[in-house]
Amino acid sequence: MFDMIIGGEAATSADRFEVRNPATGEVVDTAPNASAADLDRAVAAAREAAPGWAGMSDDARGAACRAVAETITASAEELAHLLTREQGKPLNGFGSRWELGGAAAWAGYTAGLSLPPEVLQDTNEGRIELARKPLGVVGSITPWNFPVMIAVWHYLPALRAGNTVVLKPSPLTPLSTLRMVELVNEVLPAGVLNAVTGNDQGFNVGAAMATHAGIDKIVFTGSTATGRHVMRSAAENLKRLTLELGGNDAGIVLPDADPEKIAEGLFWGAFLNNGQTCAAMKRLYVHDDIHDAVCEALVAYARGVQVGNGLDETSILGPVQNRMQFDKVSHLVADAVGRGKVLLGGAPGEGLFFPPTIVADLANGDALVDEEQFGPALPIIRYSDIDAAVAAANDSQNGLGGSIWSSDIDAAKAVGRRLECGSVWINRHGAIQPNAPFGGVKQSGFGVQFAEEGLKENTSVQVMFS
Ligand code: NDP
To answer: Whose CA is nearest to atom 42 of ligand 1?
Structure first.
């Protein structure tokens, strides 16, 4: 039985919603539908726990966060199976076990960070110190693509910086989050980390969090459209925001790249998590000179990737997570099929399975290029002029990441600097690390996560003159 966690206790509800396995359509289990009163209790529990948690020594908080990382490691196999059953991603490959490994690594690294006071000046004229203080209660709203890892990205830095947290997972994938929060509550003081769930039939928990006067900051990962709603709602009490929203990342292959060498990286840059990744490569610009060789090598690699039920140890990609996303991908691919040349896939499979799809001879202006597909379909655009390719790559409201592929690193870096995005990768796409800040520009959001920069986003600055 999966319950919410409020003030360190299981909080149940008679009103529950079903969570289904996208590979089979079977019900995995049910989760509680929170009422407005449940959310109020969760916020009150977080507020009550806040002074004690913020007042602990920095070392003690760091140790508690390390215990969270150890708990995730110890429960990784259980959580990975649950994650596969509700999300659909395979246990293996870049699937659930990989996600759990990432979650533990991020938690462990972030536990070891700290933000000691800085002395800005110490002269005869006086001393100026800068201290970073927690904001209070952080509300975390997470999506369905990497439910466990993104939850950790949200709550661990918030806790490490001395805040308490109310976390709301996506109604499509709440179970692994509820279980993780239950487990880590064994090593945290009551009320420090709370989780509430709901499926929006009636009371919308996420929207209510964004307007809640008892929440001081929202960290949100999801669509740009919902990010706008969160931002409007947050104005009421001037909540701080970190918004990690959609992307439409471009990759650009320069004429000197080696098609065989880059094929695997191109594939995983685009198809990691079935393309349901904010910073996946969602359009690929390839120079005319090597266009056909790159397409051939990419398709050859893709043909070897096994798609199937995530619980099957041999699967490397699973189904699309939900019907809304499946329909969106189907619609965009159907449109692209009429405009470009299908090199692989091109038609929906059984249930929510959609085979890896690659469509060449597309251009900016085609829907699969312009819109975020967030699924296993990659458009390829041929180019001959690098300035035109950079302009086409930048012709997007999004600006999360981008990549350049070349045998000449310096030339690649020079092109990369011209991309309008928060992360640039050379000969890879989508790499993230806990010691490197990650965030978008333009309408991909603002603020960063990870590393000291991300930790600072969970604090306010207090300057003291003496
Ligand atoms: P949403 O952005 O709609 O939902 C993400 C989270 O926000 C969910 O927990 C959702 O909960 C919550 N939410 C919805 N409405 C509000 C609101 N008004 N205020 C606060 N929180 C709210 O994503 P979808 O699942 O609908 O996916 C739509 C598109 O978003 C995808 O096609 C993809 O393009 C993009 N996306 C991007 C992700 C990323 O990593 N950047 C991750 C997932 C999706 P609830 O459903 O209960 O309202």
So the answer is: 222
Q: Which atom of ligand 1 is nearest to the CA of 372?
A: 34
Distance 173 CA to ligand 1 centre (A): 12
Structure tokens at 204: 């919308």
What is the per-residue pLDDT across 58-80, written as a single tens digit (0 to 9) for each? 999 999 999 999 999 999 999 99
| CATH number of the domain encompassing residue 358 | 3.40.309.10
Would you please indicate which residues are annotated as catalytic (active-site) residues?
A: 244, 278
**pLDDT tens across 406-437, in order?**
999 999 999 999 999 999 999 999 999 999 99
Domain of residue 140 covers 4-245+444-465
Which amino acid residue places its CA nearest to atom 26 of ligand 1?
223
SS3 311: coil
Tell me which of 166, 177, 196, 223 to substitute to probe ligand 1's pocket, judged by most ligand atoms within 8 Å of the beta carbon.
Answer: 223
336 lines ligand 1 (CB under 6 A): no
297 within 8 A of 259, measured Cβ to Cβ:
yes
346 Ramachandran zone, left/alpha/beta (phi>0; psi -120 to 50): left
List, for residues 166-215, the tens digit of each pLDDT value: 999 999 999 999 999 999 999 999 999 999 999 988 899 999 999 999 99
Q: How far apart are CA 455 and CA 111, in angstroms?
A: 10
Check if 39 has its Cβ closer than 6 Å to any atom of ligand 1.
no
Distance 224 CA to ligand 1 centre (A): 8
Residue located via tokens 């099929």: 337
In terms of domains, do 46 and 144 share one? yes
Q: Are 317 and 274 in contact (CB under 8 A)?
A: yes
β-pair partners for 218: 139, 241
381 and 451 inside one domain: no
Q: What is the DSSP string of 76-91?
A: HHHHHHHHHHHH---S
Report CA(227)–ligand 1 centroid distance (Å).
8
Pairing of strands 341-344, 357-360: antiparallel
CA-CA distance, 164 to 161, in Å (whole number)?
A: 9
Please report the sign of the dihedral spanned by the C-alpha atoms of residue 376, residue 380, residue 386, residue 392: negative
Q: Say how many domains are in the chain.
A: 2
Does a structural domain hold residue 200? yes
| DSSP assigned state of 118 | E
By most ligand atoms within 8 Å of CB, the mutation choice from 167, 170, 243 for ligand 1 is 170
